[in-house]
């Protein structure tokens, strides 16, 4: 019997060579045994029309900020599925999958409702706060975002903080990002005479960039530390000369990625202290943290106490949570803390790829079984 078919419509591409949500989606696709998951073409469900015309008109009138506020509504105006496409979707797909990021979730919602298919929504972050919408208009984005969740038959959220924001919902599951299924625990750290080796892996832009740049400059002035930075969006960072103690890599995978963990004395998570990012940090859970958690290395989390990452790390002996905004203070505290850390074993967190994949499989299977399927 053929597997049910999930059609993915979303702005986050399913890719193994990207950070964050893209690689998590790709891992779920590889380990999904209760259904087949394919990605829809980018044009499906959208045809520029009245919404695009209004967008151009507002921008000509120098009202671009209003466009940012009205984006979900303008996208909905141009949602379009010809009857032939609807017939094809009803015949070939059992459900629509989307991610609450960008604008293509509007297309996914329209496709699910017009074809009477269940809608599965994955929520990795509180996107209205990252949409570029002015703060005074974000309420309209919030309303659209909550509307997506309310109209979804299954909602998979990344953290308890996100669940608290979106409850009540009759079918909501907290599902952390999936770590690398091929993850290997690094061998015990070996004492060495040189500086402490700190490794940061992941997205280097956006709200992470200011603290990452501050840390780079602090390490350049502190001979007790080396820093290795890998991941995407490094072009906005400045790497000063530091006698070889600071190095940057692009996106790492496979052997090179494993080697970076093996060489490290500690793994770094950093988060913004800016008040405008508080809701994002309280609801988001860094995908890099699930990669770090079972690597057998101490973890340093630099961020505000309200963040889901800091709440996770508090009380764990192999995790240092530091809630000051000063990079030099972070290094001073880390120097003392690392000296007290014995060769580490893997931190037991529950972030196991097979377990997370099975939770996803079971949730999809339950939704799609004939007696439990509910129209979108």
Quote the average pLDDT.
90
The string of secondary-structure elements, in order, is EHEHHHEHEHEHEEHEEHEHHEHEHH
Overall geometric form: globular
Major sheet size, sense and barrel closure: 6 strands, parallel
Task: Report the uncertain regions.
Answer: 371-376
Q: Please state roughly what percent of the residues sit in beta strands, choosing from under 5%, 5-15%, 15-25%, 25-35%, 35-45% or over 45%.
A: 5-15%
Number of strands: 12
| Helix content percent band | 25-40%
Structural class call reads: alpha/beta
Q: What is the helix tally?
A: 14
Give the termini distance in whole angstroms: 25 Å
Arrangement of strands in the largest sheet = 2-1-3-4-5-6
Radius of gyration: 22 Å
Secondary structure blueprint with pairings:
Elements: E1 5-8, H1 21-31, E2 36-39, H2 50-60, H3 64-77, H4 83-92, E3 95-99, H5 104-115, E4 119-123, H6 138-150, E5 154-157, H7 160-166, E6 172-174, E7 196-201, H8 209-220, E8 225-230, E9 246-249, H9 254-263, E10 266-270, H10 278-283, H11 287-292, E11 299-302, H12 308-313, E12 319-322, H13 327-339, H14 353-368
Parallel strand pairs: 1-2, 1-3, 3-4, 4-5, 5-6, 7-8, 7-10, 8-9, 10-11, 11-12
Helix pairs in contact: 2-3, 3-6
In short:
Helix content is 39%, strand content 14%. It has 376 residues and is an alpha/beta fold. Helix 2 packs antiparallel against helix 3 and helix 3 packs parallel to helix 6 (138-150).
Question: What report would you give on this structure?
Answer:
With 376 residues, this protein is an alpha/beta fold. The two termini are 25 Å apart. It is built from 14 helices and twelve strands. Helix content is 39%, strand content 14%. The longest helix is centred in the C-terminal third of the chain and has 16 residues, at 353-368. The chain has helices spanning 21-31, 50-60, 64-77, 83-92, 104-115, 138-150, 160-166, 209-220, 254-263, 278-283, 287-292, 308-313, 327-339, 353-368; strands spanning 5-8, 36-39, 95-99, 119-123, 154-157, 172-174, 196-201, 225-230, 246-249, 266-270, 299-302, 319-322. Strand 5, helix 7 (160-166) and strand 6 form a beta-alpha-beta unit. The strands form two sheets. It has a six-stranded parallel sheet with strand order 2-1-3-4-5-6, sandwiched between helices. The protein has a six-stranded parallel sheet with strand order 9-8-7-10-11-12, with helices on both faces.
């Amino acid at each position: 019997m053929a597997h049910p078919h999930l059609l993915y419509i979303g702005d986050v591409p399913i890719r193994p060579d990207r950070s964050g949500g893209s690689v998590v989606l790709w891992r779920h696709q590889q380990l999904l045994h209760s259904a087949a998951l394919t990605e829809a073409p980018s044009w499906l469900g959208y045809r520029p029309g009245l919404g695009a015309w209004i967008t151009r008109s507002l921008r000509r009138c120098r009202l671009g900020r209003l466009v940012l506020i009205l984006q979900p509504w303008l996208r909905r105006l141009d949602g379009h599925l010809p009857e032939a496409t609807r017939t094809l979707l009803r015949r070939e797909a059992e459900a629509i999958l989307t991610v609450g990021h960008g604008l293509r979730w509007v297309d996914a919602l329209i496709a699910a409702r017009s074809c009477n298919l269940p809608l599965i929504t994955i929520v990795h972050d509180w996107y209205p706060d990252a949409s570029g919408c002015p703060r005074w208009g974000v309420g309209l984005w919030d309303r659209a975002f909550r509307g997506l969740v309310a109209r979804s038959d299954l909602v998979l959220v990344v953290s308890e903080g996100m669940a608290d924001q979106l409850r009540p919902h009759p079918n909501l599951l907290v599902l952390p990002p999936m770590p690398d299924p091929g993850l290997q625990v690094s061998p015990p750290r070996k004492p060495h005479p040189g500086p402490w080796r700190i490794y940061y892996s992941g997205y280097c832009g956006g709200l992470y960039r200011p603290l990452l740049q501050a840390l780079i400059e602090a390490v350049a002035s502190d001979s007790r530390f080396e820093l290795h930075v890998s991941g995407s969006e490094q072009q906005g960072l400045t790497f000063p000369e530091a006698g070889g103690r600071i190095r940057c890599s692009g996106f790492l995978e496979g052997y090179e990625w494993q080697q970076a963990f093996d060489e490290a004395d500690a793994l770094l998570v950093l988060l913004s202290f800016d008040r405008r990012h508080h809701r994002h940090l309280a609801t988001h859970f860094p995908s890099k943290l699930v990669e770090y958690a079972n690597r057998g290395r101490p973890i340093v989390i630099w961020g505000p106490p309200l963040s889901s990452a800091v709440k996770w790390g508090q009380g764990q002996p192999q995790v240092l949570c530091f809630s000051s905004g000063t990079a030099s203070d972070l290094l001073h505290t880390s120097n003392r803390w690392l000296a007290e850390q014995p060769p580490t074993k893997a931190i037991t967190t529950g972030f196991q790829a097979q377990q997370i994949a099975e939770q996803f499989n079971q949730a999809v299977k339950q939704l799609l079984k004939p007696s439990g399927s509910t129209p979108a």
